[in-house]
Structure formats: structure tokens, C-alpha cells
């Protein structure tokens, strides 16, 4: 299977370094096992409380979820809303408009993952 990639600019050492640096920055912010899963869950469910989010993102511990939410909040992907007028205090998390800019990235990763899985299956069954 051959993919032809159209490049907007010629490949130079500087361009390559800039692209690699940009990809590194992106992966630093959204990389890892949980961040994209959390972002997707928040985008699909709207505002959501911590325990419900933990149930949706199966397998994540409370400590890891808390840390990931803090990182996502610092980077502008998640907003934490505290309803202190209620007893007990209710805390909800919502995805920001900025996190929605990842939609095309998430859809592209999803499509690539589906294609990759099919390619692996075909390779395994052909042998």
C-alpha cells in the first residue's frame, strides 16, 4: 500500500526540525494513555462529574484521572466548574472550545487506527 503525501513546502533540515518540534509539542500536551480518552469522553458527554468520568474512562485510577485533568486544564482543554452554592459542593468538568480544535486530529487518528488494525489483520491472516 503506497501513500502519496503532498507537501506544501520542500523538505529541508530546518523544515523537518520544525515539524518534529511541533509534533513533539503536540504529543507532550495530548500524548499518553489517557488524555485523548478523557477529551473524547468530555466532548461526548458534555459536563460531567469526576466519578462518572472515571467510570466512562475504564481502567483509570482516581489519582491518575485527577492529575490528567489538572494537566488538561492547564493546557486549556478542560474547564473545572465548582458549584459551591450546593451542599455538598459539586465539581463538574467540561471540554473547552479549544479542545474541540482537536476534532479533526482525533478523527484522523481514529481512521488511521482503523486502517492500521485492518492492515495488521490482513498481514496476520495472509501468512
Automatic annotation (TrEMBL):
Recite the UniProt keywords alphabetically. Answer: DNA-binding, Transcription, Transcription regulation
Q: Which InterPro entries match?
A: HTH_HxlR, WH-like_DNA-bd_sf, WH_DNA-bd_sf
Picking any one GO molecular function of the record gives: DNA binding
HTH hxlR-type domain: which residues? 16-121
Kindly give the PANTHER family that the UniProt entry links to this protein.
TRANSCRIPTIONAL REGULATOR (PTHR33204:SF29), TRANSCRIPTIONAL REGULATOR, MARR FAMILY (PTHR33204)
Q: Please give the name of this protein.
A: Transcriptional regulator, HxlR family
In its UniProt entry, the species of origin is given as Epilithonimonas hungarica
Amino acid at each position: 500500500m503506497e501513500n502519496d503525501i503532498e507537501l506544501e513546502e520542500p523538505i529541508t533540515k530546518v523544515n523537518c526540525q520544525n515539524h518534529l518540534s511541533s509534533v513533539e509539542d503536540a504529543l507532550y500536551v495530548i500524548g499518553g494513555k489517557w488524555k485523548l480518552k478523557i477529551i473524547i469522553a468530555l466532548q461526548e458527554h458534555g459536563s460531567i462529574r469526576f466519578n462518572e468520568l472515571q467510570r466512562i474512562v475504564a481502567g483509570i485510577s482516581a489519582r491518575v484521572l485527577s492529575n490528567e485533568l489538572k494537566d488538561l486544564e492547564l493546557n486549556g482543554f478542560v474547564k473545572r466548574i465548582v458549584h459551591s452554592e450546593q451542599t455538598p459542593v459539586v465539581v463538574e468538568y467540561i471540554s473547552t472550545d479549544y479542545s474541540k480544535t482537536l476534532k479533526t486530529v482525533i478523527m484522523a487518528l481514529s481512521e488511521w487506527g482503523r486502517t492500521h488494525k485492518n492492515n495488521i489483520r490482513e498481514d496476520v491472516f495472509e501468512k
